[in-house]
Design goal:
The complex is a heterodimer of chains A (305) and B (379). Helices cover 72% and strands 1% of the residues of chain A. Chain A is globular. The longest helix of chain A is centred in the N-terminal third of the chain and has 32 residues. Chain A is mainly alpha-helical. By secondary structure, chain B is α+β, with helices and mostly antiparallel strands. Helix content of chain B is 24%, strand content 34%. Chain B has 9 helices and 20 strands. Chain B has a 6-stranded mixed beta sheet with strand order 6-7-8-3-9-10, with helices on both faces. A 5-stranded antiparallel beta sheet of chain B has the order 13-12-11-14-20. In chain B, strands 15-19-16-17-18 form a 5-stranded antiparallel beta sheet, with no helix packed on it. In chain B, helix 2 packs across helix 3 and helix 3 packs across helix 4. The longest helix of chain B has 18 residues. The radius of gyration of chain B is 24 Å and the shape is elongated. The N terminus of chain B is likely disordered. Classes of the chains: A mainly alpha (305), B alpha+beta (379). At the A-B interface, helix 10 and helix 11 of A face strand 6 and helix 2 of B. Chain B: GO terms for molecular function: ATP binding; ATP hydrolysis activity; transmembrane transporter activity.
C-alpha cells in the first residue's frame, strides 16, 4: 500500500509545470513498468497460491473417501482449527512473544555496543552477527540439538552439578524458545543497530547537557530514538517465530508443538488434512496480522507507517 | 567531590585556568587561560580545528580537560558531568530530540530538574524566540531557522549561568543569519546571561560579542573588544583573520620620537610606537585596505606612500576595491568609498600612488606563513 502511494506521487501527484507536459505521458508509466516484474512474480507465486489455499480451506471431504475433497464453503475447518488446535496456537504466540522478548534483551546491548562503543571493531561484529546466515537454518538448529542433548556437554555438565531439574534440556519448551531466540536474533540486532547508528550523537549529548543523567538520557532520548529499529526488529522476530516449526520439531517434544508443526503434519502426514491445514494457515495469518496491526498502531512511529 | 545527580549551584564569571586538552598526540587546546565576565557576550573566534569547539565542550562538561580547571565563580566544575553543570549548549546541528514535540523539547531541561509547570516555562521561552506558534510540531516539520530558535529556547529556558553557542548560525543562509545575529544580541541583553559563542565567522563575532577572543592552534592569539581587535591586531594571524590587512615584511630602521621607521620592500614607512607590536629587527608592517587611498598623482603632505600598478578593479556598490601590485611584487587591496561625484576612473594597468596616514599603520612580529597567506588572499 505504501509502495502504491509512492507510485501515485511519483507518477501523477503534484502540480507539474507546463514545460514538463511533453515528457509526462511517457514518464508516467515508468514507475508502473518498474513494478511490473515484481508485481507479476508476486501475483503468480503469492496471490494465486493464497487464493487457491483459501478455497482449499473451505473444502469438504467426500464421505468415505479420505483424501478426496469437493469445493464447498465449509467454515467447519476453521472451527476445527481453532478448537482442536487452540493449545498449539497459544504456544505459537507465547513462544514467539518470549523469543521476541529475549531477543530484544540480548540484541539491544549488543546493537548499542556496536553503534557506540566498539569503534573499529564494528565491522567485525557486524560480520559476526550475519555469519550464521552462511549456514542453513536447519543445520544450525540440528547443531543446537546436539549441543543441548542429554549426553551433550551442556546437559551432562548441568546434570553432574544437579542443576537441571527435569534432567534434560531438549524436548522442553525452554529449548524451543531458546532455539527461536537464537535463530531470529540477527533480525533483532540489525534494525536496532541501524537505528542507533543513524542517531545523531549530539542529540544524545544534548540529553546530558539538559540535566539528564546517563540512565535518564537513555530512557528519554536514546531508546525513543531507536524505537523504529526496535519496532522493525520485534516484527521481524515475532512474525517468523510465530509461524516456525523447525525449532519445535528439532528441540521440542509433543507437548511443545506449535501451529507450524500442526500445519506441517496436517499437510504432509495426515490423510485428508489439507482443508484443516489450510484453515490453520489462514487463522495463523489473520491472528498475526491483527496483532501486528494493534502493535504498530500502539507503538508505531511515523517512519514505519 | 560531590557526584550527586543534582545541578551544582554556581554563580559568577566563567574561568578557565591553564586548561589543556590532548587527543592522543594532538593538542587541541594548549594551556588556555580565559576569563568571561558574568553577563557578557563572549565570542571565541577562530578557523576550524583551532580548538574553540573543544574549549566550549570542556565548559559544557562534554569533554574533560587533560589538565587545568574550569570554574564558574568560585565553584570548580572540573570533572563534573554535563548534567551537573549550570551550563547549557545550543549545538551546531541543533540536536533537537526528533521524537518530541517542540514544546517537549524545550520542557526537557525543566522536567529533568523537576521544575513545576515546565510546560508553561517552555511556552514562555518559545515566545521569547518567537516560535510559540510551532509548539506542537515535531522538529522535522521545522525550517532550519525555526529549529535554531527552538534549540535556543531549549537552552534559554533553564536560565543557565553560562549559555554556550556552538556555531549556532552556521547552517543558515546569509540573510537569516544577519537577522538572527541581531536577535541573539537582543535576547542576550534581555535575559542578561553569560553567552559564550563559538564561530569561525569574524563578522558574526564582531557584530554580536562584547569581547572576542581569537584562537589559533589551541591558543588565544588576542582578546578584546571587536573595534580594538580590528584597529590594532597584535599578531599577523589576527591581522588576517579579523578583517583583511595589507602586510609587508620589513626591517626596523630606527626610532624618531613617538614613531618607528622601517624599510618595507624598498619603501620607508613610519608607525606610531604605540601601534608597533614588533619594534626591532624583522617585522611585518600592516595597514587595513580601507585606510589607504588610491591616487593618480603623487600625493602631497606628510603621509606615507608607495607606487604601484592597478591589477584589478571591482565595483561593489558602496565601495570599489582596487588590487594594486607594488614594485616588490606584493599585491595590496584598497577600498575606496564611492563618495565622489566623478568616480576615479582607474583601469587595470594604470600607474597609481597608494597613500595612507601613518597613524593607521601597525607592525606585528614577522610570521612568514601568515605573510604568505595574506599575499595569497589578495593576490
Amino acid at each position: 500500500m505504501t509502495a502504491l502511494a509512492h507510485v501515485g506521487q511519483a507518477g501523477g501527484g503534484g502540480p507539474t509545470p507546463p514545460a514538463d507536459d511533453q515528457e509526462r505521458p511517457g514518464r508516467r508509466w515508468v514507475p508502473y513498468l518498474l513494478l511490473l516484474p515484481g508485481g507479476l512474480w508476486l501475483l503468480v507465486f503469492f496471490v494465486v497460491p493464497l487464493v487457491q489455499l483459501f478455497t482449499v480451506s473451505l473444502q469438504s471431504q467426500f464421505p468415505g473417501y479420505p483424501g478426496y475433497y469437493y469445493r464447498d464453503v465449509n467454515a467447519g475447518n476453521y472451527l476445527r482449527a481453532l478448537t482442536d488446535f487452540a493449545p498449539q496456537f497459544g504456544r505459537s504466540l507465547l513462544f514467539a512473544a518470549l523469543a521476541t522478548f529475549f531477543a530484544f534483551v540480548l540484541a539491544y546491548p549488543l546493537a548499542y555496543a556496536m553503534a557506540f562503543k566498539v569503534g573499529r571493531w564494528r565491522n567485525v561484529m557486524l560480520i559476526a552477527v550475519i555469519a550464521p546466515f552462511f549456514t542453513s537454518f536447519i543445520l544450525r538448529t540440528v547443531a543446537w540439538r546436539q549441543i543441548l542433548a542429554d549426553e551433550g556437554p551442556v546437559a551432562s555438565t548441568l546434570n553432574a552439578l544437579h542443576l537441571l531439574p527435569g534432567g534434560h534440556i531438549t524436548e522442553t519448551w525452554a529449548a524451543v524458545v531458546a532455539g527461536l531466540t537464537y535463530n531470529f536474533l540477527p533480525f533483532m540486532v540489525l534494525p536496532i543497530y541501524a537505528s542507533l547508528e543513524r542517531a545523531d550523537h549530539r542529540v544524545i549529548e544534548a540529553g546530558g547537557d539538559l540535566y539528564a543523567n546517563g540512565f535518564t538520557t537513555f530512557r528519554t532520548v536514546t531508546l525513543p530514538m531507536s524505537a523504529p529499529g526496535v519496532l522493525a526488529g520485534t516484527l521481524l522476530t515475532f512474525i517468523p517465530a510465530a509461524g516456525d516449526y523447525v525449532n519445535a520439531d528439532l528441540l521440542g517434544a509433543d507437548d511443545t508443538k506449535m501451529v507450524g508443526n500442526v500445519i506441517e503434519s496436517q499437510f504432509f502426514k495426515v490423510l485428508g488434512g489439507f482443508p484443516v491445514a489450510a484453515a490453520l494457515s489462514f487463522t495463523l495469518m489473520a491472528l498475526i496480522l491483527a496483532m501486528v496491526f494493534v502493535y504498530v498502531r500502539r507503538f508505531g512511529t511515523e517512519e514505519l507507517l | 567531590m560531590a557526584r550527586s545527580s543534582g545541578v551544582r549551584e554556581a554563580t559568577g564569571d566563567l574561568r578557565l585556568e591553564s586548561v589543556t586538552k590532548s587527543f592522543g598526540g594532538f593538542t587541541a587546546v594548549d594551556d588556555l587561560d580565559l576569563l568571561v565576565p558574568r553577563g557578557s557576550f563572549f565570542a571565541l573566534l577562530g578557523p576550524s580545528g583551532c580548538g574553540k569547539t573543544t574549549t566550549l565542550r570542556m565548559v559544557a562538561g562534554l569533554e574533560q580537560p587533560t589538565s587545568g580547571r574550569v570554574l564558574i565563580g568560585d565553584t570548580d566544575l572540573t570533572g563534573s558531568r554535563p548534567f551537573e553543570r549550570p551550563v547549557n549548549t545550543v549545538f551546531q546541528s541543533y540536536a533537537l530530540f526528533p521524537h518530541l514535540t517542540v514544546r517537549d523539547n524545550v520542557a526537557f531541561g525543566p522536567t529533568r530538574r523537576r521544575v513545576r509547570e515546565a510546560g508553561a516555562l517552555a511556552d514562555e521561552a518559545l515566545a521569547l524566540v518567537e516560535v510559540d506558534h510551532l509548539a506542537s510540531r515535531k522538529p522535522a516539520q521545522l525550517s532550519g531557522g525555526q529549529q535554531q530558535r527552538v534549540a535556543l529556547a531549549r537552552a534559554l529556558v533553564n536560565r543557565p549561568e553560562v549559555l554556550l553557542l556552538d556555531e549556532p548560525l552556521g547552517a543558515l543562509d546569509l540573510k537569516l543569519r544577519r537577522q538572527l545575529q541581531v536577535e541573539l544580541k537582543r535576547i542576550q541583553t534581555e535575559v542578561g546571561l553569560t553567552f559564550v559563542h563559538v564561530t569561525h565567522d569574524q563578522e558574526e563575532a564582531m557584530t554580536m560579542a562584547d569581547t572576542v577572543a581569537v584562537m589559533n592552534h589551541g591558543r588565544i592569539e588576542q582578546m578584546g573588544a571587536p573595534a580594538e581587535l580590528y584597529d590594532l591586531p597584535r599578531t599577523a594571524f589576527v591581522a588576517n583573520f579579523v578583517g583583511r590587512s595589507n602586510l609587508g615584511a620589513g626591517t626596523v630602521l630606527g626610532r624618531d620620537g613617538e614613531h618607528l621607521s622601517a624599510e618595507v620592500q624598498g619603501t620607508t614607512v613610519t608607525v606610531p610606537l604605540s601601534r608597533a607590536q614588533a619594534r626591532e629587527g624583522a617585522v611585518l608592517f600592516g595597514i587595513r585596505p580601507e585606510k589607504v587611498r588610491v591616487l593618480r598623482e603623487a600625493p602631497e603632505g606628510t603621509g606615507d606612500d608607495v607606487r604601484g600598478t592597478v591589477l584589478d578593479v571591482s565595483f561593489t556598490g558602496v565601495a570599489t576595491e582596487y588590487l594594486v601590485r607594488l614594485p616588490s611584487g606584493t599585491v595590496w587591496s584598497c577600498y575606496e568609498q564611492n563618495l565622489d561625484v566623478d568616480p576615479v576612473d582607474l583601469r587595470p594597468g594604470d600607474e597609481v600612488w597608494i597613500s595612507w596616514n601613518p597613524a593607521h599603520a601597525f607592525t606585528v612580529p614577522l610570521d612568514e606563513a601568515e605573510a604568505a597567506a595574506a599575499a595569497e588572499a589578495t593576490g
